[in-house]
Amino acid sequence: MTERNGHRPYRCPVEVRWGDSDRLGHVNNAKVVEYLQEGRIKFFRSELPARDAVVLRKMDVEFLRPIKDSSAPIEVETTVLRLGTSSFTVRQTILDRDGVVCAVADTVLVGFDPETDTSQPLTDEARAVLDRHRAVTPTG
């Protein structure tokens, strides 16, 4: 995904750790989900205001190619697909050292009030940040 009209994906490196591989030499699928989580955490810490809490509601992961030790360093690209009142959907793509897509995940996250354990609308500041990372469709 490329930057257009100020919209850009967030990219960060994630380390493939020594103990992440299974007996086939592939990174275990549960570890791939951890890489996605690490990418989201880096995105939130880097981009969202600290006071804005979000929780994961749903995740759909497609495993396209095995990640191996030789795939490192990998990058997790995060872009916003949908932005609602209290929730948003991010697409995360894991790319290997050669830029080959290894996994793609769509994740729904919800603004959250930790004091009441209920959803809450996203703040205007959070919405502005998320909008800067929104995917640009071919029509707009």
TrEMBL record:
Organism of derivation? Rhodococcus pyridinivorans
Instruction: Give any GO molecular function from the UniProt entry.
Output: fatty acyl-CoA hydrolase activity
Q: Name one Pfam family in it.
A: 4HBT_2
Protein's name in the database: Acyl-CoA thioesterase
